[in-house]
C-alpha cells in the first residue's frame, strides 16, 4: 500500500502516515478511515505526522480527501503536521484552511521530523482548550 499507517511511539499519542511512491485520493481516504479507527480506540488525544518524504506525486483531487478527513475527524485528534509536503499539497491545505474545514484547524507544515515533533510539543496543550 502506498500509504503506511502506524503508531509513532509506544504511548500511542502520535500516529504516522508515510506516503510512498504513487498514491491517489482513494488510497488517502482509505488511510484516513484506518486513522479514525485507530484513534477511536484510545481515550486520549492523538497527534498525527503525515510524512511525504517518499511521495512521488500529488493527486489532482486531494481536496476531496481533505473534505473526507473533515467528515471522519475523530474528536480526540490533535495536531496534524505535514512533513516534507510539496508546494501542491501546501496549496491544497491553504485552500482547505481558507474554506474553514475543521480538519485543517490544527494543521501545520514542517521540513524535518524534529520540527514536526517540536510543533506537536509546543502547540498540543492549546488544542482542546481552544
Secondary structure layout plus pairing:
Layout: E1 3-7, E2 14-21, H1 25-40, E3 46-55, H2 62-71, E4 77-83, H3 87-98, E5 107-110, H4 113-127
Parallel strand pairs: 2-3, 3-4, 4-5
Antiparallel strand pairs: 1-2
Helix pairs in contact: 1-2, 2-3
- Overall structural domain count: 1
Radius of gyration: 13 Å
CATH architecture: 2-Layer Sandwich
Terminal CA distance: 36 Å
How would you portray this structure in words?
- There is one protein chain.
- The chain is an alpha/beta fold.
- The protein has one domain (3-123): Transcription Regulator spoIIAA.
- It has helices at 25-40, 62-71, 87-98, 113-127; strands at residues 3-7, 14-21, 46-55, 77-83, 107-110.
- A 5-stranded mixed sheet has the order 1-2-3-4-5.
- A hairpin with a 6-residue loop joins strand 1 (3-7) and strand 2.
- Helix 1 (25-40) packs parallel to helix 2 and helix 2 packs across helix 3 (87-98).
- The radius of gyration is 13 Å and the shape is globular.
- The mean pLDDT is 91.
Amino acid at each position: 500500500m502506498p500509504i503506511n499507517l502506524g503508531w509513532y511511539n509506544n504511548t500511542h499519542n502520535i500516529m504516522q502516515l508515510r506516503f510512498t511512491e504513487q498514491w491517489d485520493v482513494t488510497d488517502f481516504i482509505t488511510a484516513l478511515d484506518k486513522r479514525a479507527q485507530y484513534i477511536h480506540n484510545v481515550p486520549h488525544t492523538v497527534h498525527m505526522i503525515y510524512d511525504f518524504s517518499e511521495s512521488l506525486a500529488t493527486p489532482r483531487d486531494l481536496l476531496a480527501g481533505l473534505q473526507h478527513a473533515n467528515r471522519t475527524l475523530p474528536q480526540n485528534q490533535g495536531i496534524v503536521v505535514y512533513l516534507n509536503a510539496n508546494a501542491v499539497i501546501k496549496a491544497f491545505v491553504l485552500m482547505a484552511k481558507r474554506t474553514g474545514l475543521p480538519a485543517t484547524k490544527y494543521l501545520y507544515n514542517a521540513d524535518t521530523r524534529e520540527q514536526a515533533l517540536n510543533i506537536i510539543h509546543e502547540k498540543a496543550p492549546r488544542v482542546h482548550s481552544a
